[in-house]
Design a protein that fits this description.
mainly alpha, disordered N terminus
Length: 138
């Protein structure tokens, strides 16, 4: 799922330009939904990560396993430093995944915007910049 900062002007519009408008009946917009302006999934193959989707899912499942490993380590009273080592590995895995996804976004969505003109390019560059800022803060 692609997200944009709710506070950025044109962020949702920029995402919609690449991915299409979000339907009003989307369950992600109901009560308790994440309000980070989630954008609709376009037709299959519409995202930059579509060609690598299976590999990404496999990678996320491996990271999920690392997180479950952290839970087990706590339950089994494993030494603190060993747990911190696993936290570091899990964090690095997520960062690496995020960078790969960002690269695919730049290659696909930003490149697609280049065919639509300077306003679309500017919107995509701002959107990518905000995503990079969020990644650096985490």
């Amino acid at each position: 799922m692609t997200t944009t900062d709710a506070g950025t002007s044109g962020g949702t519009a920029a995402a919609a330009a690449c991915h299409g408008p979000q339907p009003e009946s989307d369950p992600r917009t109901g009560p308790g939904a994440v309000t980070d302006t989630a954008v609709e999934n376009p037709a299959p193959g519409g995202h930059g990560y579509a060609k690598q989707k299976d590999a990404h899912i496999k990678r996320l499942r491996r990271i999920e396993g690392q997180i479950r490993g952290l839970q087990r380590m706590l339950e089994e009273d494993v030494y603190c430093i060993d747990i911190l080592t696993q936290v570091s590995a899990s964090t690095k895995g997520l960062q690496s995944f995020g960078l790969q996804l960002l690269e695919e976004h730049l290659r696909h969505c930003v490149a697609d915007a280049a065919t639509k003109g300077p306003d679309a390019i500017e919107a995509k560059v701002q959107e990518a910049t905000k995503a990079i800022e969020r990644m650096l803060r985490s």
